[in-house]
Amino acid sequence: MTNWTPSLEGRPGPLYRVIADALADDIADGTLPVGSRLPTHRDLAFRLGVTVGTVTRAYAEAEKRGLIGGEVGRGTFVQGQRPPPAPLPITWPPAGGNTADAVVNMTTVHPEHAVAVQTFGQTLIDIAASGRAATLIGYGPHAGLPEHRAAIAAWLERQHRVRTGPDSVLLTNGAQNALAVAFGAVARPGDVILAERLTNIGTKALAATQGYHLEGVPIDEHGLVPAAFDSACRRLGPKAAYLVPTLQNPTAVVMPTARRREIIEIARRYGVVLIEDDVFGFMVPDAEPIHGMAPDITLYVSSVSKSLAAGLRLGFIVAPPELRSRAEATIRALQYSAPALPAEVAARWIQDGTADRIVATQREEDLARQRLARSILPADAVCGHPAAQHLWLVLPEPWRREDFIAEARRRGVIVTGADAFAVGRASAPHAVRLGLCMPRGRDEAARGLRALADALDAPAAAMLSIV
């Protein structure tokens, strides 16, 4: 392991990004050669005097840029790809507010909720006048206040097709925290957890920081491959399997009902708990969650981040009775309880119909951006369900993902390569994920999509890095 301690002085911006920028510079000037093993999250945090979480975010940011890659059980290493010279800034919004020449950021799935913004202030005024301040700012029950859990149970049935009672719902600080709780309820450090071979970056970071052995299982155009899942269960004896059956992240695939039943049957055969991430489920109302088919072996995880407002940081778990006490104990250990104020906001919106209006607006916008993308990008390169907030772009020959990412950046668009989602040492396809809802407005989205289409039409650019 290299004894790397970056210099952070004089660098503007959030601390995690400052560390990632310093890492990029040290790779570019040869201070960190290709193949160098980086310090552990905890070691670097100690050297810099920052939190482990800050280093985790910095490494995740560097992995998005294609600078580093993690290998389960071995550590984090500098990748063969070098950052392009004079990279365009990643800051957002652009300085001065001039969007004409600004970078189009398509790296994250970060929807903007105009109705929520318009409603939020009045909701806070109503809460202030309600006489509930003492209840909302004090310590609450570990699983959340009963009235908030009831509101979420109603919301899940209305928008996610999950039928459950309030007692089965446990509130958390967003879906990422809900995953940490779910993992902690069924596994211990060193235990194997299966995941789709391409999975969301936050899950990779969680497994790495908490010491779980995340093992990737092959996927196809319908999601997790049953035969491969069966083999992995038989060979590895996993405690759980994490999957996103509806609008999978990053491929935007919706797993067919028959495939879901196959996965459930295999999980039952080997005694594997299924951790279902359904944050995008509201976008595909006819997709029945795995929870509905197998509630006794499923820890269902979701949040309001993609549907109502990411900043509320309100997530939830639906747990079967035999796992409920363990999940609640994990919540107590991690954060005692989720804050009641964000849950109060969400509950009021659910009860007065505001939440349904927000979702309807979000669906309309997401569908419009998918139509826009599919009208601009070549049809044979576009993959995924047309209701998704993101899109999987499979690169045609002769493009390699690292060259395409560099060319896209040169043209003013930032995207995320498939390697950022690859689990362990799994090889990643030559593809990129586009966050269609990240650009501010359809005009900006169209500008970024046209730049990507132009890049795909310029195959000569793909050969420029070959000497």
UniProtKB/TrEMBL annotation:
What the record says about family reads:
In the C-terminal section; belongs to the class-I pyridoxal-phosphate-dependent aminotransferase family.
Report the residue ranges that make up the HTH gntR-type domain in this protein: 13-81
Q: What is this protein called?
A: DNA-binding transcriptional MocR family regulator
Q: Which Pfam families match?
A: Aminotran_1_2, GntR
Instruction: Name any one GO molecular function.
Output: DNA binding
In terms of InterPro entries, this protein maps to: Aminotransferase_I/II_large, HTH_trans_reg/aminotransferase, PyrdxlP-dep_Trfase, PyrdxlP-dep_Trfase_major, PyrdxlP-dep_Trfase_small, Tscrpt_reg_HTH_GntR, WH-like_DNA-bd_sf, WH_DNA-bd_sf
| PANTHER family per record | HTH-TYPE TRANSCRIPTIONAL REGULATORY PROTEIN GABR
Q: Which organism is it from?
A: Azospirillum picis
Q: Which of UniProt's keywords are assigned here? A: DNA-binding, Pyridoxal phosphate, Transcription, Transcription regulation
